[in-house]
Design brief:
Layout lengths: L6 H4 L9 H11 L4 E2 H11 L5 H13 L3 E5 L5 E5 L7 E5 L5 E6 H13 L10 E4 L2 H5 L10 H30 L3 H31 L10 E2 L5 H12 L4 H25 L4 H44 L8
Parallel strand pairs: 4-6, 5-7
Antiparallel strand pairs: 1-3, 2-3, 4-5
The chain binds zinc ion (ZN) (2 copies).
One zinc ion binds next to loops.
Length: 328
């Protein structure tokens, strides 16, 4: 997945303030959704009659090559273009009645594609998933809550929902671990992590409220990110293991496994997304999970050391204690 070039740097240095290319780029980036080349020509002509069709076509091809635009084939016999600026990669649902499309992303589909490619030793560069059919609005007349071009907001909303769910299950995990840990130092660590999770949770919830304030309908819009294997499952599983009864060392080990899984999940997805609020949310969350992981690993090591010392001490105590009948 190529990362998006810095658009400012693509502009010719010292060139005219607004070349034709910049003008076309500017109009294109202001559009949401999926445009045909002719749609773009019409839009450009509205602003500047002097720009030729050929120039628009050439510029579109340049934008595709530079990774600013993606070319999509909806099976209409012509290509459409969408910009990739702050626009996460996605798959499409395409309505054959109204020709509108909506976007989604599924970690399960991505995992499956990766698995197949790896099994066949295939270096994949792009995968396209298009689901054709009839949209809800065309079938039932019910107005759609997902107008084209909403992907960035939906992505940020869903990224936050996933992070919040993970934070909640993390909080539950650490609260439980703190309650059942006998080692005082270990208990403190779990308590501290629970407090941190609580603090992060309220930060995330505030961000979520800010998003809702910008778009009161946001809650009712359809899901963009389908992340069945998301990291909150890890902590829920960890909490279940705790409930079965484990010792301090095992509790730390379970915590380490959860945090490592969570860190990897958010980092992997964060890094692969195009620059956007959703990407930021994933990467910041990955950093927090990394910090928790480091803390747990330090604590695990020092607990093992302390236990080793006390075991040795216990051994030397019993060795120093003369036992009756012990051969010397
Ligand atoms: Zn439709
Ligand atoms: Zn799209």
């Amino acid at each position: 997945m190529p990362t998006l070039p810095d658009i400012k740097r693509l502009k010719p240095a010292g060139g005219k303030r607004s070349s034709k290319r910049e003008q076309i780029l500017d109009v294109f980036l202001r559009q949401e959704g999926h445009l045909s080349a002719d749609d773009l020509v019409d839009l450009i002509r509205r602003e500047d009659q002097r720009i030729s069709r050929a120039t628009v076509y050439r510029t579109l091809q340049w934008m595709v090559d530079a990774g600013i635009a993606r070319k999509v084939d909806f099976g209409e016999g012509r290509f459409r273009f969408e910009h990739s600026y702050r626009h996460p990669r996605h798959y499409h649902l395409i309505c054959k009645t109204c020709n509108r499309s909506s976007e989604f992303l599924s970690s399960d589909i991505e995992a499956l594609v990766e698995e197949v490619a790896a099994a066949r030793n295939f270096a994949s560069s792009q995968s396209v998933v298009q689901i054709y059919g009839t949209c809800e609005e065309c079938r039932t007349g019910k107005k759609s809550a997902a107008p084209d071009g909403y992907t960035e907001q939906l992505f940020a909303r869903d990224a936050l929902r996933i992070a919040i769910a993970t934070e909640r299950s993390g909080l539950e995990f650490y609260s439980r671990a703190a309650r059942m840990t006998k080692d005082a130092r270990g208990r403190n660590v779990f308590q501290r992590l629970a407090d941190e999770e609580r603090h992060h949770l309220s930060e995330l919830e505030n961000k979520y409220k800010e998003l809702l304030a910008r778009d009161p309908q946001l809650e009712s819009r359809p899901t963009f990110l389908f992340f069945k294997g998301a990291a909150n499952g890890l902590f829920a599983e960890g909490a279940e293991l705790l409930a079965r009864g484990v010792n301090d060392q095992q509790a730390l080990m379970i915590g380490i496994r959860c945090e490592r899984g969570s860190h990897r999940f958010f980092k992997k997805y964060g890094e692969r997304f195009e620059d956007s609020d959703g990407k930021q949310i994933f990467l910041e969350f990955a950093d927090e999970e990394r910090a928790h992981l480091d803390l747990l690993i330090r604590e695990y090591r020092s607990l093992v050391k302390r236990q080793g010392r006390s075991r040795k001490a216990a051994r030397s105590v019993s060795a120093a204690t003369p036992r009756s009948g012990a051969a010397r």
